Recover the amino acids of this structure.
């Protein structure tokens, strides 16, 4: 796998994992009983973008590492994995 392909695959995995990680640790303003005037009560109470980015990067690196091990070192392809799940093909 070339460097450009690896970067593209990592970026796609990172973007997908962002939406998986985003709700982790979410506390709404309603949960905290501190709703700011003019906002929805379901808005995050103490949102920290850097924590979300760090969590996403860690999870993405683990998933990308598993992908590299499966494809580059063990020789599996996407088609081999999809063959295990015939209902999704």
């Amino acid at each position: 796998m070339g460097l450009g392909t690896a970067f593209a695959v990592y970026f796609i995995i990172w973007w997908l994992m962002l939406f998986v990680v985003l709700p982790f640790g979410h506390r709404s303003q309603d949960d905290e009983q501190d709703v700011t005037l003019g906002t929805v009560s379901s808005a995050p109470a103490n949102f920290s973008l850097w924590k979300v980015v760090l969590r996403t990067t860690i999870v993405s690196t683990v998933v990308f590492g598993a992908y590299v091990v499966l494809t580059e070192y063990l020789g599996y392809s996407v088609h081999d994995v999809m063959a295990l799940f015939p209902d999704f093909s």
